[in-house]
Each structure stands twice: as C-alpha cells, then as structure tokens.
Specification:
Elements lengths: L1 H14 L2 H4 L2 E14 L10 E13 L4 E9 L3 E10 L6 E22 L6 E22 L2 E2 L4 E19 L4 E13 L4 H7 L5 E14 L1
Antiparallel strand pairs: 1-2, 1-10, 2-3, 3-5, 4-5, 5-6, 6-7, 6-8, 8-9, 9-10
Length: 217
C-alpha cells in the first residue's frame, strides 16, 4: 500500500504544471527602444531609437497568472539641430548647434495572463503601471565644441504599460522569451521640457521589442 501511495504521489507531482512547481522566475532582456513624442516630428528633439536592457523578477500566483517587477533602461539618444551664427567681426560664419539627449528608465509592476503551455511555447499578455524616469540634457555646440551651458531635467511620471511575450522552453528551467512592451506617458510642463520638445507638456510613447532569457526556479 505504501508503494502504491508513493507511486500515486509521484505521478501527481509529474503531472503538475511546471509553473506550479517553480513559481519564481527571473528574466534578463535586450530590447530596441523606439521613442516618439507629440508635436511636429520635423522639429521634435526627443524622438529617437536606441538599444536597452532590463531585468525582471516574477512570481506565478496561479498556473496562469503572474505578478512581475521589472526595471528596463533605454539607451541615450541624441538630436543635433544647426542654426547659423555670424561671427562678431562678420568675417566668417560659425555653426551653432543645439544638442538634445534623453533616456528613459521604466520601473514597472505588471500583471500577466499566460496560456497553458502548448508543447514548448507559452504565450503571455501583460498590463500594469510603470514609473518612467525621463532624463534630458540640452547644450550648445559652436563649431562642434560643447559650451558650458548644459540644462538638465529629470521627470518621474506614471506610464500605462502593456506587453506580450512568448516563452519558448529550452529546458525545464530555461527559456527564450521574444517580447514587446509599450509605455505611454506625459512629461511635466515648463522648464527644459517646454524648451526641448516645443510643448508645455509633451506626451510620449516608448515601444520596446526585444528578447529575453528566463530562468524558472
């Protein structure tokens, strides 16, 4: 009887979904960072494309539902726009440029719904809220030389966040996760924000397609 009980217990254990056996997972991701802001795209100085990376810690509260905390850091992007500046003596024309750099760091808490694993692939859909740390730097270049007039501004603003992923199992614990995440937010008005983006309160969207490596404990 004891052997029968042990055999039955082992069968139930093996039949339990992997997410129930290993509820905690960690993901490291590399992504493209496509940033677009409101306003005229021909004069907007915040738009840009970069590469970034992130790390996420998640927990399966049930076989289908997860809670995930993540930090995703985008790369700096730079826009330089030129304006003519005549030399004081009028003998030559110097090139005056305005350089704008910005980077977005998103700290997110997401709820995920995951389909039951189909063979080696499991689809997931995520939604939640992020805090976006938006850092912007503006300075002037004259004849290519930076001038000591840099203006910095940092905003920490909420962002509605959605995402989708597909976990492809490599082994019981290891998986490759193609994904895309979208952050929508509005920057604060005034200060450098208005100068940089040409608007008192520019809204923005960051689209981040990428791929991650997930380890399930």
């Amino acid at each position: 009887m004891q052997r029968i009980f042990l055999a039955g217990a082992m069968t139930l254990t093996l039949a339990t979904p992997a997410t129930a056996q290993s509820p905690v997972f960690v993901t490291g991701a590399l992504f493209g960072d496509l940033k677009r802001f409101s306003g005229d795209p021909t004069t907007n100085s915040l738009d840009g494309n970069a590469v970034g990376g992130g790390v996420r810690l998640g927990y399966f509260v049930s076989p289908r539902w997860t809670v995930e905390l993540g930090v995703d850091t985008g790369g700096w992007t730079e826009v330089i726009r030129a304006n003519p500046l005549l030399n004081v003596k009028g003998a030559a024309a110097l090139l005056r440029q305005t350089r704008t750099r910005n980077r977005l760091v998103a700290t997110s808490v997401l709820i995920g719904f995951h389909q039951m694993a189909n063979a080696r692939v499991q689809l997931g859909y995520l939604g939640g809220l992020a805090l976006v740390h938006a850092a912007r730097k503006v300075d002037t270049l004259i004849a290519g030389a930076p001038q000591p007039n840099e203006r910095d501004q940092v905003d920490i603003v909420p962002a509605a966040t959605i995402g989708a992923e597909a976990r492809v199992a490599i082994s019981r614990h290891l998986g490759v996760v193609p994904e895309v995440r979208v952050f929508a937010f509005s920057l604060s008005g005034g200060g450098a924000a208005g100068v940089i983006a040409g608007s008192s309160a520019p809204s923005g969207i960051a689209i981040r397609p990428g791929v991650g490596i997930r380890w399930t404990f």
